[in-house]
Amino acid sequence: PTVTPTLTATFTLTATPSETPTETLTPTETLTPTDTLTPTNTLTPTNTLTPTYTPTLTPSPTLTPSPTPTQALFTLTPVNNVVNPAGITVTPAPLPVDSGWSCGEFPCEDDVDAWLRKIQVPPGFTVEHAGQFRGTPQQLTVGPDGRLYATTFVEPGRVGGVGVLDEDGNASVYVDGLLSPVGLAFQPGTDVLYVSARLTAASGGVIYRVPPGGGAPITVVDDLPCCWREIDNQVNGMTFGPDGLLYVGVSALTDHGESDEPEREPYRDPIPGEASVVRVNPHTGDYDVYAQGIRHPFDLTFDSAGQFYTTDSGTIDGPGDRLIAMDEGGHYRFPYWRTLGCTNCPLLRRDATYSDALYALPDFSLPRGLTAYTGDQFPASVFDNLFVALWHDNGTGQRVVRIAPAEIPEDDVSLAAYEPEPFVTGLMRPIDVAVAPDGSLLVLDSVYGHVWRVRYVR
Q1: pTM
Q2: CA end-to-end span of the chain, whole Å?
Q3: Nearest-CA neighbor of 235 among 207, 256, 210, 209?
Q4: 352: helix, coil or strand?
Q5: What's the rounded Cα separation, in Å, for the pair 9 and 307?
C-alpha cells in the first residue's frame, strides 16, 4: 500500500510601515511530501518502511505597494481665558523721558538699570531684564525646554544661526553657519526646530530643520522666492498652525512691483509664492500658497480661535505698513497699491478679487514682531489681543502696541481717531514679541539683543 500525506505551510511576512513606502510580501509555499510504503513478505514477515519525500514548492508571491505613509502632524489644543484675572482695564503705558541717559537718548548697552528706568509699561505691570543675545537678533521663540531661542546674525555678511539663553540669561550658540536667518518655530509636541534663511546673499529662500540638541541643519525647502535686497525682503517669520502645518511669510522681490525692464513694461506681476504666506508640510517640504498680495509678511500668529494674522511693511517711500487678518485664498492687494496712496504702484487688476487689511499702521512705523496673547497671567480683557512691535523711530514707533481686533472701528470717522495703545515704550529697536509659558510677555530688541520680560503684578 502507498500512503501519501500532504503537509501545507503558509508563511506571511509583514513589513513595518515607516516614512518610506512599505511593501507587503505574502508568499505561499505548499510542501507536498510523498511517502511510499513497500512491504516485503518472507517466511518471517518483515515490514520495511522506506519514506521518500518529494517536495513541491509552489511560491505565490503577491507584491502590493502601499500608499506613501503620512507622518502624523501634531495639532494644537485650543486655549481659553477662564483663569485670567477678570474685571481689570489696562491703560496705556506712559511715554518715556528721551534725554539724560548714559548714551544720549538711550542708556548704554550694558546699563541695564537705566534701561529698566527708561522702559515704561501700563500701571499694574512691571518689566525686568531676561537676558541678552549676541549679534543682531531677528525673531524669538520659547523652546519646549523653557529656554529662549532667537535667530541672530553678524553684520556685515549676515552669517549667523540660532542662539539660546540659559536660565540666567547667558547666551550660547545652538546652531550656526546659516545665511540671514530670520524665522524660527519649534514643531508642537517635539523639540525639532525649523528656521528660515537664504541660500545665497541674493537668492534662494530656504527652510531648515534642526534636529533635537542643535545638530546639523537639514534642508526642507530650498526654492522659495527670494530676495529683493541683501538686507530686506526674504523668507521671514513662521509659525505652526492649529492643523500642525508650518506657515511661512515670503516677501516680495520688488519694492512696489517695478519691472527689470522699465522701457518695455513699467511693472511686473509677482511670481507664484512671492509676496505671500505659504503653507508647508514640515515632513515632506510640499507647500502651497495660503494668502497673497502681502509685500513683507515679517511675522505671523494665530489667536485662540484660529484667526490668522500677519504684519506687513510698506514701500521704501511710505505707504503700506499694516496689520492683516488673513483668510485662506485672500489677496491683499500688493503690488496694486495705487488706491492705498502709492502713486508709483500699478493699478488693481480687473481679473482679481481683493481683501482689505485689518488696520493701516502709521507710515514708516515698520511693524515687525507679532503675537496674540493667549497666556493666563494678564487680565482677561487682554486675552487674544495682538501685540505688535513697531521698529522704526517715526514718532509712533520704537514701542510695542496693543490692538484688540474687535475694538477697531468700522466707520471712517471713528477709525481716523483710533490709535493702537502703547504697551511697552522707551525701547530702541523692538523687533519681536512672544508669550512665555508663565504668561509674561517677552520683547526682543535688535540693536543690543536685550530681552525684556513684562509681568502683570497687581
Answers
A1: 0.83
A2: 102
A3: 207
A4: coil
A5: 59
